[in-house]
Amino acid sequence: MFYKNLFNLENKNIFITGGAGLIGSEITKAVAELGGTPIIVDINEKLSVELCKKLINDGFKCNYENIDLTKLENIESVIDELIKKYLIIDSWINNAYPRTSDWGNKVEDLTLESWRQNVDMHMNSYSWISRKVCMQMKEQGFGSLINFGSTYGLLGNDLSIYEGTSMTSPMGYSAIKGGIINLSRYLSAYFGPFGVRVNNLCPGGIFNNQPESFVKKYSEKTPLRRMGKPQEIAAACMFLASDASSYVNGHSFVVDGGWSII
């Protein structure tokens, strides 16, 4: 039964930032179905409460913490309170995707204020959360931290797939995700000797009712000829959160249907 138990998350506390969103909700469901206790850390109270209630009604565990982790000055004290409440952080998944209302602006229309806000809300919050969580995991002697990167944190952008749509790939996204990916490499080296694993999960394009022309172009460039599904990202996340990946550290796990190989 060795291999069957590798993905078992029974009695494990798995914290998911943005745990009520498109991908986060699937991660939350996956943790629950594998026997773990998903702890949604999200500012969307309505979606979070609804998801928790549904899982609990279906016989699973689920907790919710209404926390705004973009308030950098509060991160350490907030995580201290979570540790007092839950005692152990078995896995922490930085999945939240905070951004300003002008996030999709083109390069020519960017403002310095917006740039700084987005770097603070996204990359700096991931960084300060990761630091604090890793210090707790060091004290425990174990733990898995998963940071969401992206293929666009590893590769240059193919902007042609956005032509003819109102969509774009923001300049800040590549800078932020690239920073997060290398942050995770640093933390994996620094905290690895204490039994702490830090990895990146780098999704490719996930279908979310994008314009038909975009979906067509993206799919044509991808060897699997389609966009990804949120459930497929959640499944990869469970590998990194569980003992199945016990010797995986400092890795950027790319889940993109082959997009990044061509």
Question: Can you tell me the CATH class?
Answer: Alpha Beta
- Helix count, per DSSP? 7
Class based on secondary structure composition and strand pairing: alpha/beta
Characterize the biggest β-sheet: 7 strands, parallel
What count of domains describes the coordinates?
A: 1
**Over all CA atoms, what is the radius of gyration?**
18 Å
- Overall pLDDT score: 97
CATH superfamily: NAD(P)-binding Rossmann-like Domain
Q: Which architecture per CATH?
A: 3-Layer(aba) Sandwich
Backbone shape: globular
CATH topology category name: Rossmann fold
Spatially, the strands of the biggest sheet line up as: 3-2-1-4-5-6-7
Map the helices and strands.
Blueprint: E1 13-17, H1 24-33, E2 37-42, H2 45-57, E3 63-66, H3 75-86, E4 91-94, H4 112-140, E5 143-148, H5 171-191, E6 196-203, H6 212-221, H7 230-241, E7 252-255
Parallel strand pairs: 1-2, 1-4, 2-3, 4-5, 5-6, 6-7
Helix pairs in contact: 1-7, 3-4, 4-5
